[in-house]
Design goal:
The complex is a heterodimer.
Chain A (H helix, E strand, L loop, with lengths): L1 H9 L10 E5 L2 E6 L2 E6 L5 E5 L12 E8 L2 E6 L10 E6 L5 E6 L9 E2 L4 E4 L4 E10 L5 E8 L9 E3 L2 E5 L5 E5 L5 E5 L11 E3 L2 E5 L4 E6 L5 E6 L9 E2 L3 E5 L4 E6 L5 E6 L9 E3 L2 E5 L5 E4 L17 E5 L11 E3 L2 E4 L8 E5 L5 E5 L2 H6 L2
Antiparallel strand pairs in A: 1-2, 2-3, 3-4, 5-6, 6-7, 7-8, 9-10, 10-11, 11-12, 13-14, 14-15, 15-16, 17-18, 18-19, 19-20, 21-22, 22-23, 23-24, 25-26, 26-27, 27-28, 29-30, 30-31, 31-32
Chain B lengths: L1 H23 L2 H15 L1 H27 L4 H11 L3 H26 L3 H10 L16 E2 L2 E2 L8 H17 L6 H22 L4 H45 L15 H4 L4 H7 L1
Antiparallel strand pairs in B: 1-2
The chains are: A mainly beta, B mainly alpha.
Chain lengths: 376, 281
């Protein structure tokens, strides 16, 4: 057995435990990856600060995952799940200026996908199955924000809710999508037709919510009452947030397929096949659909002009460009910044790559190569 | 390579584990059953390995004599060892074949417990889509009595049980030896292994610890079930030792062939039919 473990360990580097997230505000990018939340200056490529500044914290802080949220002068991020079942059950508010901790909220389990806000309250979905509404302007004696309300579901919440029209649409591992009144935390309706967990922030347009479940179906339901509009089959678990285009809905699955569905009917119009899982949300910009995959490649498709075979698989010629040079698994939704696509790899020395959004040509990296070389 | 290993070993185990969980709605029951199934499937390999160890232990005195005699002639030494029936691979091959199975089982447990997003994603990639309903079983209910199977044990019960069962398992299944050096190594191993695994279990999920304890208990049970056969094998190999020990020393020339009738590799192979063998005696 000892050899078994040695062999397992030698088979490759230990897998990361959760998915990194990135957001951009002004000229700064905030990246939550493994044990650090880092602020990067996109103009200079320099690291502004890192939270926590050191790793000798007791109890340990992190790991982090999900999309960092800018909330006034703070950056809000959730503690995430680690290897071997460990987790950090806190939501942290960090000073945007210095990277120092301002306050923390102590939950019971991990906050995998970050939080959302309406500008007043912070809505934090937890692995304990509860959605917490926190008021950071009203704090306890120990500095923790007060809980305004708590909405309990039957299983893990590993995705952020969608906040729209005073409602929160929260997906749960208890196979349901909930509509919750954001002010009171009261349930408005529950859609429980899926036969497996849902792990994504739904997308909404014209009063219709779009999402998929691990049960092998994509769903469109009416946001007003939770009634089903259509459902359409996929080939594997979908764990990407969906992207809505002009007429099509895009989402990717854990076996590497990206689907385009007709928004109105749910018919599968085409699909694209990468070599490994799609976890990051496809990004629609510059008339292109950008896809990053665990196969380490970045793809740019022209969604309006795809040629497809009889099965619906798109022709390789429909790929405008493909970058194969990053060499690391990609699981974070990329962000368009100026004319560049910011792509954070899952691991390795480089935290963020910039690619020319039109050509896919690799540009600068953060940290810069020189800085990396001199890092002890 | 990883994909092939996944396809052949880890995926079947992962999906069987989910099926069993679906049947019994209890992860511990599924884990115990899968461990029993795997242990039963690897039983012939276990038996072969133990018999081989017995044979090698029985050949120790002759091998020592040969090593002394031909210490400056490695070629002749290896030829003579082969004639004795010494096959270095016979002992390790069954063990080596078992390793991928154990690693596969370990991976299947870690995947199905899906304690973090990444392991759940890995599970999603490997769930059989032709078996409908498996996806609805995740995430598994990880609560068992006072434990969360996906978390390290806060009460340290699992690490203690792992240490205890690994100690007894190592002690019981260790082959007796007369070689003082081997004895010392065995003694060290009987402490090192439990301590190492116990230390690992301090930060490993309870579910993995349960697998370990069950696996050790089955190993101990298997040993006692196989004990009569192993004793028989020991007796059979003890008999031919006297003659071949003398053979190299008594041989007039180093390259003289040993008496063929005394050392037949087939005797080891036939140990799986103890009644027939003992009947002939």
């Amino acid at each position: 057995m000892a050899l078994a473990f040695t062999l397992t360990a030698c088979a490759g580097e230990p897998p990361p435990a959760a998915f990194p997230g990135m957001s951009v505000s002004g000229q700064y990018a905030y990246l939550a990856n493994n044990f650090h939340l880092t602020k990067w200056d996109l103009n200079t490529g320099a690291e502004v600060w890192k939270f926590p500044a050191t790793q000798d914290n007791n109890p340990p802080i992190g790991p982090f995952s999900g999309t960092p949220l800018k909330f006034g002068d703070w950056i809000i991020i959730g503690g995430s799940a680690g290897l071997n079942g460990g987790y950090d059950p806190h939501v942290y508010a960090v000073s945007d200026a210095t990277g120092a901790e301002v306050w923390r909220f102590t939950g019971t389990r991990e906050f995998v996908d970050g939080v959302v806000t309406d500008g007043k309250l912070i809505y934090a979905p937890s692995g304990d199955g509860a959605l917490y509404a926190l008021d950071p302007s009203n704090r306890e004696a120990n500095g923790e924000p007060r809980i305004v309300w708590k909405f309990q579901t039957g299983n893990r919440l590993w995705s952020r809710p969608l906040l729209a029209d005073g409602r929160l649409y929260q997906a749960s591992f208890d196979h349901s999508l909930y509509a919750i009144d954001a002010a009171s935390g009261r349930q408005i309706w529950r859609f429980d037709e899926p036969a497996a967990p849902i792990a994504m922030q739904p997308a909404m347009r014209d009063g219709v919510l779009y999402f998929a479940s691990f049960d092998g179906f994509a769903y469109a339901i009416n946001a007003s009452d939770g009634s089903l509009k259509w459902k359409s089959a996929v080939d594997a678990w979908v764990w990407t947030d969906p992207t809505i285009g002009r007429d099509l809905l895009y989402m990717g699955d854990v076996r590497g397929k990206v689907y385009a569905f007709d928004l109105q009917t749910g018919a599968r119009v085409w699909y694209f096949e990468a070599l490994d899982s799609i976890k990051a949300q496809p990004v629609l910009a510059n008339d292109l659909l950008y896809i990053v995959s665990m196969d380490t490649f970045v793809y740019a498709l022209d969604p309006s002009g795809v040629a497809r075979d009889g099965s619906g698989r798109i022709d390789r010629n429909s790929i405008k460009w493909r970058n194969e040079t990053l060499g690391r698994r990609l699981m974070t939704t990329p962000v368009i910044y100026g004319g560049d696509l910011l792509v954070p790899p899952l691991d390795g020395e480089v935290r963020i790559w910039t690619l020319n959004a039109k050509t896919g040509e690799r540009g600068s990296r953060m940290p810069a190569a020189q800085a990396t070389a001199t890092t002890p | 390579m990883g994909n092939i290993f996944d396809f052949l070993v880890v995926n079947p185990m992962t999906n069987t584990m989910l099926l069993l969980y679906g049947l019994f709605n209890n992860y511990v029951v599924a884990l115990v059953l899968l461990t029993v199934i795997i242990r039963l499937l690897t039983l012939p390999l276990n038996l072969k390995q133990m018999v081989s160890s017995i044979k090698m232990a029985a050949l120790q005195p002759q091998m020592k004599a040969l090593q002394e005699k031909y210490k400056n002639d490695p070629q002749t030494l290896s030829a003579e060892m082969r004639k004795l029936g010494f096959n270095p691979l016979a002992g390790c091959l069954p063990t080596l074949i078992q390793f991928p199975i154990l690693i596969g089982l370990y991976n299947a447990i870690m995947r199905t417990m899906a304690v973090n997003p990444f392991s759940l994603l890995e599970l999603g990639k490997h769930v059989y889509s032709f078996l409908p309903g498996l996806s609805s079983l995740v995430p598994i209910n990880s609560q068992f009595l006072v434990w969360d199977l996906g978390q390290p044990d806060p009460f340290f019960v699992t690490p203690i049980l792992v240490v205890a069962t690994t100690y007894f398992s190592t002690k019981v299944t260790m082959m007796p030896t007369t070689d003082p050096q081997m004895k010392q190594t065995n003694q060290m191993m009987s402490w090192m292994m439990p301590v190492m695994f116990g230390f690992f279990m301090l930060s490993a999920p309870v579910g993995l610890g349960i697998y370990w304890v069950v696996s050790n208990l089955i190993g101990i049970g298997q040993y006692y079930l196989m004990k009569p056969r192993l004793e028989l094998a020991r007796a059979q190999h003890a008999a031919p030792t006297a003659a071949p020990t003398a053979t190299p020393a008594a041989a007039p020339a180093p390259k003289a062939p040993p008496p063929k009738s005394k050392v037949k590799p087939k005797t080891t192979v036939r140990i799986s039919k103890p009644s027939a063998e003992s009947g002939k005696k």
